[in-house]
Specification:
231 residues; alpha/beta; Beta-carbonic Anhydrase, Chain A; globular; binds zinc ion
Length: 231
């Protein structure tokens, strides 16, 4: 069977009123990937999240997609997310094998290895959008708020410190993990700061953004609803 462009397949599936378990859904080929604008790539993620939240995730033939992509991949997006088991990008954005690149680290903070990976994903492999996605009630952010120091985790949590410092609160406010609202404000601030860090530290990605070939956006995944809010 010829490859069906994910964009059209997804649109058709969203348009159909009944969820259909046997719907064919295949991965991107190079032509389909390159035909997408960054905004259209972002829309695909938003539509996928809407399906996930509605309980209408596509019933894919994953082994078929695995075999179909064995000779090449043309993912349309890159997502940097937290390590958290409840915030897996492929699930949250309802994507299959070969659809998106994913980088994961507790607290979704960028580092040299991740930046190199994103440069590969965009400049070499053609992805159109990079999403830095935090999530509500993040354990890494909570740990940073509480000043947790354990092994290598200490250095990782230090990366979140600037976001904590950037969130101002009235005197007497509880700035520990016990304050869920404060934690979520740090989560959002950290996402915004990591987007800025990514653009500041990667000449390659910044160049693609300036050319209009790639978009970098922040997002927060709400664990209580499944919804991803783009910033
Ligand atoms: Zn987390």
């Amino acid at each position: 069977m010829n490859k069906v462009r994910t964009l059209f397949a997804a649109t058709a599936i969203v348009a159909s009123s009944a969820a259909c378990a046997s719907t064919s859904y295949e991965t991107f080929d190079q032509e389909a990937q390159q035909a997408l604008t960054p905004d259209q790539a972002l829309e695909l993620l938003q539509e996928g999240n809407a399906r996930f939240v509605a309980g209408e995730s596509i019933d894919r033939d994953l082994i078929d997609q695995q075999l179909d992509t064995a000779d090449g991949q043309f993912p349309f997006a890159v997502v940097l997310s937290c390590l958290d088991s409840r915030s897996a990008p492929e699930v949250v954005f309802d994507q299959g094998v070969g659809d998106i690149f994913v980088g994961r680290v507790a607290g979704n903070v960028v580092d040299t290895n991740l930046l190199g990976s994103f440069e590969f994903a965009t400049a070499a492999a053609g992805s159109k959008v990079i999403v830095v996605m935090g999530h509500t009630a993040c354990g890494a952010v909570k740990g940073a708020c509480d000043g947790v120091e354990v092994g290598n985790l200490t250095a990782l949590l230090d990366e979140i410190e600037p976001a904590i410092d950037a969130v101002s609160t009235p005197a007497g406010t509880d700035r520990s993990s016990a304050n869920a609202d404060f934690v979520n404000r740090v989560v959002e601030t950290n996402v915004r700061m990591q987007v800025n860090e990514l653009l500041r530290r990667s000449d390659v990605v910044r160049g693609l953004v300036e050319e209009g070939q790639v978009k970098v956006v922040g997002a927060v995944h709400d664990l209580a609803t499944g919804e991803v809010r783009f910033l």
